[in-house]
Design goal:
The structure holds 2 protein chains of 2 kinds. Chain A is built from 6 helices and 5 strands; from the N terminus they run E-H-E-H-H-E-H-E-H-E-H. By secondary structure, chain A is of the alpha/beta class. Chain A has 2 domains: 106 residues, Rossmann fold, CATH 3.40.50; 28 residues, no CATH class. Chain B has 13 helices and no strands. In chain B, helix 4 runs antiparallel to helix 5 and helix 5 packs across helix 10. Chain B is globular, with a radius of gyration of 18 Å. The chains are: A alpha/beta, B mainly alpha. At the A-B interface, helix 2, helix 3 and helix 6 of A face helix 1, helix 4, helix 5 and helix 9 of B. The complex binds flavin-adenine dinucleotide (FAD). Flavin-adenine dinucleotide binds next to helix 3, helix 5, helix 8 and helix 10 of chain B.
């Protein structure tokens, strides 16, 4: 099955983890029109995203994200998607909607330190004390 | 893309900071960590200005941390730099747990705040017309370049929330629109950290702090009656007694 990679606002690079896992795959980035019309970002910010997206993705589209990705998949003959994980609720919702139509492989994002499942603290000092050592002293 | 950004067409400008991986790798290579720990609080200090690349995954957080280790080893400066990257991971971790909950007060405020009802900051603030040179110049830099030094962000947020008693959410929106590194978690939770709805105490600054970390140039040009020219106990009395 031919895999395509969806690049989003947290993963604008050819070194994106999903693309690294599928180096031969074609990739797409979508400027989500409904979101951008509401968010009112500055031109600079959108232009910065654009500069990053054109370097990273094979195709850059504007429209509703799910519709654009599905349309792109049809055009490219792509049958399944791979995407790098993001904590954003909008990302999660998009993946759920895509999964109603196609298979989506979620690739873990790059982290500096590993946060154990179920780990909970509310302040940075204990967070770094507990987990920072993995990076600072480890390896 | 017309209709998708907040300025009028004739006012739309690019930032001096260029997007894309090529520019990002050049910036990463240029960054030297020496002196980071002792100068990072100064506006002219040796900070990386990599946040917008890291925010959008143009550079990986681990890639940046590794590049510093490979080139400079485990120095005092490197450890401090990694710790700052750790903040980013911390906020991101909380975003994973709370989602859009980052946009709600996480805790009761430790000091009296405004009612937070306003959707937007007043025009004189976002147009840089308060007459306070330090704040007006901060806004100008943000709007022109899409980047602010961490200390400038803290001063501005404290000015909005504590000196002007405006809601942190309106300030958060303003930053999110303009910062190239605008990130739901880092931004909203940092505003809450300043406001004290996600920290043990409110963040305050005074004129001495601005001069020490930003230089005297702003104050020398300023003719306004300075609301920041006081000791911390005085400011606390003025701003936080009911
Ligand atoms: C009110 C307010 C709003 C903020 N909004 C954002 C935001 O939307 N996006 C954002 O990335 N940062 C935000 N920050 C954090 C911080 O100001 C910026 O990350 C930092 O100034 C970026 O500059 P730099 O790349 O030169 O940082 P450096 O000092 O070189 O730090 C290296 C990297 O570590 C990370 N980092 C450093 N400090 C912080 C921090 N306190 N929180 C999170 N990450 C950090 C960034 O990725 C940064 O690029 C905010 C801070 C405040 C006080």
């Amino acid at each position: 099955m031919k895999t395509g990679v969806w690049l989003h606002g947290d993963s604008l690079s050819k070194e994106d983890p999903a693309l690294r896992r599928h180096p031969e795959a074609r990739s797409v980035f979508v400027f989500d029109r409904p979101f951008l019309e509401k968010a009112g970002l500055s031109f600079k910010r959108i232009f910065f995203l654009y500069e990053s997206a054109v370097e990273a993705a094979d195709e850059v589209r504007v429209g509703e994200t799910v519709e654009e990705i599905l349309e792109w998949m049809r055009q490219e003959g792509v049958e399944r998607l791979a995407v790098t994980e993001s904590p954003s609720p909008r990302w999660r919702e998009t993946v759920e909607r895509l999964r109603q139509k196609v298979e989506v492989e979620v690739v873990p994002a790059e982290v500096m330190v590993t946060v154990p499942e179920g780990y909970r603290v509310k302040r940075f000092t204990p967070f770094w004390k507990d987990l920072g050592g993995e990076w600072v002293d480890g390896i | 893309m017309v209709g998708m950004y907040c300025e009028k067409i004739e006012e739309a400008r690019e930032s001096v900071h260029v997007g894309g991986r090529k520019a990002a790798l050049e910036a990463l290579e240029k960054f030297r960590v020496q002196g980071y720990a002792s100068t990072r609080n100064k506006l002219k200090g040796n900070v990386s200005r990599l946040s917008f690349y890291i925010r959008h995954g143009v550079l990986g957080i681990r890639e940046v941390a590794e590049s510093v280790r490979e080139r400079f080893g485990k120095s005092y400066d490197a450890v401090k730099f990694w710790q700052e990257l750790g903040w980013r991971q911390f906020w991101r971790h909380l975003y994973g747990l709370w989602g859009d909950g980052v946009y709600e007060d996480r805790e009761a405020a430790k000091v009296p705040l405004g009612n937070g009802a306003e959707e937007e900051l007043p025009r004189e603030i976002v147009e840089g017309r308060t007459g306070l040179v330090c704040m007006d110049e901060t806004v100008r830099e943000l709007v022109e370049t899409g980047y602010l030094h961490n200390h400038a962000r803290m001063w501005f947020a404290s000015f909005v929330v504590h000196f002007r008693k405006l809601g942190w959410k309106a300030g958060e929106r303003f930053f999110y629109r303009h910062l190239l590194d605008g990130d739901p978690a880092s931004n909203a939770l940092s505003w809450q950290w300043v406001a004290s709805t996600f920290s043990h105490r409110a963040y305050l600054f005074n004129r001495e702090n601005i001069q020490e970390n930003g230089g005297k140039e702003w104050c020398e040009r300023c003719t306004a009656k300075c609301p920041f020219d006081a000791t911390y106990p005085e400011l606390e009395r003025r701003l936080f007694s009911k």
